[in-house]
Amino acid sequence: MIRIKLSEEERNLLNQYRNKRNSGLSGRCFYVLLSDEGKSVPDIAKRTKRNEHTVRFRLKQYRKGGTDRIFSAFRQQNRYNQEYHQYHGLSAEFHR
Fold this sequence. Notes:
The structure is a single chain. With 96 residues, the protein is mostly helical. It has one domain. The protein contains 5 helices and no strands. It has helices at residues 8-18, 23-36, 41-48, 52-87, 92-95. Helix 1 (8-18) packs antiparallel against helix 2 (23-36) and helix 2 (23-36) runs antiparallel to helix 3. The mean pLDDT is 81.
C-alpha cells in the first residue's frame, strides 16, 4: 500500500499546480494530494477514472523524487508529444 504524507509546504505547492490549466500535471498532483488524505490506490483510481497501475506508478514517482520527479516526467512527456505532433504534421492546438 502506498501512502504519502506531505508537509504543509508540499501540500501548498501541489495545490498550486493542481489548479493550473494543464490537466496532465494537475492529475498527477491530485493523486498525491488524495494519497495524503489517506485514500488508497483503488480509491484514487476510481475517483479519477484512471487505472490503478497508473496511479501507483505516479505515486511511486513522487515518493522517489518529490515534485521534481513528477514535473520533470511531465516535461519529458510533453516534449515527446510536441515532437510527435511536429513529425506527423499535426497542429499543437489539436492536442490541447
